[in-house]
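Input record, target 12 of the design panel.
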């Protein structure tokens, strides 16, 4: 008789069943793979099971192959889900307390401190919990769809708690802020340049690209890498031929 294996396997049903901290850990492993070999992708498979299903690495070797395939395929579907922007959400932090958080109700009214901190952390998956601590804070009062959030006191107050927020909400917020930032930048530049003559306009545009081109390129590269990871995950973690 073959040995019987009992495993506690928790499979997330949606991207929001995954915490931001789990997603950060997986992204770090995935982005650290320089070459997609059979060995490196198998390692990524095992890390996916460890991170998202709370399975010890050594336990993965005892999973029946058909179940191994099914779990990985399901994880691929979950990670690839697209979620809409959530302006308000409830979640339970690592202290066990459930709190309703709201996105900054008017991004145009952000203080310079909020904006600088958000801009500092939004480009890095490792710092995404700090960026979310700028964008989302506990709701202090509300009336129907209108609400106020707690005043900003720096990222330290809620950053660790935000590691336990749903990953899908964080990813959607990151993409939203990037698109909004690009729109605001284009509008501001266009309005400012209308009053300049052609020669002066070219000089200002050149200086703007020199100052901001590297940062924009880095962020675009980050988005492309994230997109490739999300796109390739279903095939890379599945062992189906």
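The sequence produced for target 12 reads:
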């Amino acid at each position: 008789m073959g040995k019987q294996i009992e495993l506690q396997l928790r499979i997330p049903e949606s991207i929001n069943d995954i915490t931001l901290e789990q997603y950060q850990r997986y992204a770090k492993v995935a982005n650290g793979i320089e070459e997609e070999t059979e060995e490196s992708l198998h390692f990524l498979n095992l890390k996916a099971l460890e991170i998202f299903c709370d399975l010890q690495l050594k336990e993965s070797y005892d999973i029946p192959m058909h179940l191994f395939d099914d779990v990985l395929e399901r994880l691929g579907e979950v990670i690839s889900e697209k979620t809409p922007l959530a302006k308000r959400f409830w979640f339970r932090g690592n202290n066990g307390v459930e709190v309703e958080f709201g996105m900054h109700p008017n991004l145009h009214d952000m203080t310079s401190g909020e904006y600088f901190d958000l801009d500092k952390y939004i480009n890095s998956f490792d710092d995404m919990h700090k960026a979310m601590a700028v964008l989302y804070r506990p709701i202090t009062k509300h009336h129907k769809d209108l609400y106020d959030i707690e005043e900003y006191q720096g990222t330290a107050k809620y950053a660790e708690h935000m590691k336990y927020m749903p990953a899908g909400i964080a990813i959607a917020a990151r993409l939203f802020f990037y698109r909004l930032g690009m729109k605001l930048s284009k509008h501001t530049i266009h309005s400012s340049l209308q009053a300049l003559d052609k020669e002066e306009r070219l000089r200002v545009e050149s200086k703007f690209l020199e100052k901001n081109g590297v940062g924009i390129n880095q962020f675009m590269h980050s988005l492309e890498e994230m997109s490739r990871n999300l796109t390739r995950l279903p095939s890379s973690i599945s062992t189906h031929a």
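Helices lie at 20-31, 38-53, 65-79, 112-121, 128-135, 159-162, 167-193, 198-236.
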